[in-house]
């Protein structure tokens, strides 16, 4: 179980530039893609660890 906090909804504050917001959103996307990648890897591993021997009988 990975405990990733998805607290990356960016709300514009007074004085924040759009460039800063874009940068934060890109950071958020990076975290999300990492989470998705890890989830896919875990799923793939569990698929490979199943008993497939019945297929070769």
UniProtKB/TrEMBL annotation:
Keywords: Kinase, Transferase. Signal peptide: none annotated. Pfam families: IKKbetaNEMObind. Coiled coil: none annotated. Residues 18-55 form the I-kappa-kinase-beta NEMO binding domain. Transmembrane segments: none annotated. GO terms for molecular function: IkappaB kinase activity. This is Inhibitor of nuclear factor kappa-B kinase subunit alpha. The gene is CHUK.
């Amino acid at each position: 179980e990975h405990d990733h906090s998805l607290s990356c909804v960016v709300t514009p504050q007074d004085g924040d530039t759009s460039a800063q917001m874009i940068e934060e959103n890109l950071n958020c996307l990076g975290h999300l893609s990492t989470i998705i990648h890890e989830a896919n890897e875990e799923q793939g591993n569990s698929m490979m660890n199943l008993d497939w021997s019945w297929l070769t009988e």
